[in-house]
Amino acid sequence: MLTGLHKSYGDVHAVAGVDLVIAPGEVVALLGPNGAGKSTTVDMLLGLTRPDAGAVTVFGSAPHDAVATGAIGAMLQGGALLDDATVGETVGMVASLHRKPMPVAEALRRSGIEDLASRRCNKLSGGQKQRARFAVALVSDPDLLVLDEPTAAMDVQSRREFWKSMHGFTSSGRTVLFATHYLEEAETYADRVVLMRAGRIVADGSVAEVTALVSGRVIRAAVPGAAQAALAALPAVTEVELRPTHAAISSSDSDQTLRALLATYPRAHDIEVTAMGLEGAFLSLTSDDSAMVTNGADLS
Amino acid sequence: MSFGYLILEARRAMRNTRFLIFSIAFPVLLFLLYVGLYGQGNKSIIGVLMVNMTGFGALSAALFSGGRVALERSVGWQRQLRLTPLSGSGYLIGKGVIAMLVALPAVILVPLIGAVVEGVSLDAGGWLRVTVGIWLAVIPFALMGLLIGQIGTPDSMQPIMSLAMMGMSLLGGIFIPVDTMPDWLLHIAQVLPSYWLGQVGRGAVTADLTVNLGKAAFVLAAWTVVLGFGVVRRYRRDSARV
Fold this sequence. Notes:
- The structure holds 2 protein chains of 2 kinds.
- Chain A is an alpha/beta fold.
- Helices cover about 35% and strands about 25% of the residues of chain A.
- The longest helix of chain B has 29 residues, at about 90-115.
């Protein structure tokens, strides 16, 4: 859907060549640190910003046309609600603009705010506002739902409820693209994870695939008498972090490293081996280590 | 344009009580006050005061109405609307219609009080000019409000709007009737649309210092075109940037 996208603001190259094809029915998480170009990419996808170069097509047409037919629903960052209108009025008005909306009551129910229909938008809590925005995005009954950090300002409970209602939507075969800071959300709810850094996609695949890009595990152990250099010389070790109480050894083959470690330091104890997980992948792929980024891009 | 959108906008306008009181009660009270101070039982003076306060109420209501656009821009409501089938022209026309709607109370109430309480009597054509005529003459002010709302921020709205309103009213012959204006001020006044708005009504109540209705309509139409162009241009640039 997105090909060769570029967008600059002055000297800042916010999006520097993004190619991304999302198939109908996919649930895609867009991850990246602040300033990675997520929001700019989302804006171009929605037709709110015109790319300097490249093309965007949504279900075969330009974003503007897809918006006009109600094929895209979006929940943007920030306010986007009117203080002096009620939730019901706002959702109802947006519904009236679309040709084939879902009933307002249903949009409110699916967003978990049917009891707030007559509440003024300025009287809502942060989490309730997010859900009201979700109802606004949902009411056109779109085929593609784009959510820019949908659960920001939500507490754990509302976040869980939000994703529950989300799940109801995606199980009906709709396409969802969401940008998020919460890796756990991407891990739990997305079929596919797209990692962005400095305006480029650095990794793209299922959670398992992206995690595998940063292959390996971390061994934590108290290793009396160990020196940084000696630990780094163990087989398959990629990185060593030596702390007063323990060492954190990243390894591409933890079995091999662990055997060597125990052979060299029989007094090593309190050993813990953990997978990097998405968080580890996220940190290494989006860190400023450019070698790692090139590596990630090659693998994707 | 969308009917559902208009209804929500109208409801929101009605909900803003402070704004409504300001745009309805203020011109009526000022009218009664001025008649008490300067009316001297002179029907012609009372007529001029009625026209001027009708114009003041209507133009300030229409002008201030557009200021809400600044808030809608800043909270991202405009962006949200751009993700619906509502077109840019639909949005702007809706805003313009609401501005004209909130200008209606002043246009109805002040002449009504002029007729019932102050005994102003005009022929049907005259009443049409001070009501419908002034109401239509407010169109450039609705557009001016929209333009200001698209340029300013919510924080700057209050001072900019007050400045625009006072400038238009004081220099355009609304607060200082053209009869009492020195020549140099009269020259300045003729540059402003508020002068021509006043003239639309003035011709109905006095023959002093009036201009031909057709000329006033022409100047106001020209203002409408220029400001309308500005509003559309600004909206397009805004959409491209955000």
